[in-house]
């Protein structure tokens, strides 16, 4: 079973990196295009860009398969919460745009401001979900290993 958890972990890490790269690219475009204007929420974009950079970095480092990577699930959970906060600040900054509901993620491939904004919201939310799933896999692996090692210790004490 450890092979399955490692494969799932690698797939999740690749997905985390990809989603963070998409958000970093879109938010970088917004910063480049509208960074000089006071009417746009630059602090929100910078926060989201920093979270995307941190996610890419840790996703790449934790992509290297080693068993201690599963013990880092509290950091996965922390990064997930940071992504939920990034999603929240992007939603809050949406007030300046007339792009519809925050959950309306259609036309995210349009080369429009609303399409890019929706894509950044969608991928920041999806990134938060993937990071929390990664934390759950780490928790599952950690407690499964701890339970099995405790069971072995009990069996050895009976001998």
Automatic annotation (TrEMBL):
It is found in: Membrane. The chain crosses the membrane at residues 7-31, 43-64, 71-91, 122-143. Keywords: Membrane, Transmembrane, Transmembrane helix. The keyword Transit peptide does not apply. Residues 9-136 form the MARVEL domain. Its main location: membrane. It holds the Pfam family MARVEL. Coiled coil: none annotated. GO terms for cellular component: membrane. It is a multi-pass membrane protein. InterPro entries: Marvel (IPR008253). This is MARVEL domain-containing protein. The lineage of its organism: Eukaryota, Fungi, Dikarya, Ascomycota, Pezizomycotina.
């Amino acid at each position: 079973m450890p092979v399955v958890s490692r494969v799932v972990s690698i797939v999740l890490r690749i997905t985390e990196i990809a989603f963070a790269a998409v958000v970093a690219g879109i938010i970088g475009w917004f910063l480049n295009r509208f960074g000089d204007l006071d009417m746009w929420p630059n602090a929100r974009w910078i926060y989201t860009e920093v979270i995307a950079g941190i996610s890419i970095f840790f996703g790449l480092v934790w992509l290297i398969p080693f068993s201690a990577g599963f013990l880092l699930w509290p950091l996965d959970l922390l990064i997930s919460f940071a992504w939920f906060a990034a999603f929240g600040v992007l939603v809050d900054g949406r007030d300046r745009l007339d792009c519809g509901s925050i959950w309306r993620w259609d036309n995210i491939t349009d080369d429009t401001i609303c399409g890019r904004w929706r894509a950044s919201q969608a991928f920041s939310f999806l990134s938060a979900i993937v990071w929390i799933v990664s934390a759950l896999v780490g928790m599952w692996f950690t407690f499964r290993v701890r339970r099995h090692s405790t069971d072995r210790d009990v069996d050895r004490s009976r001998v």
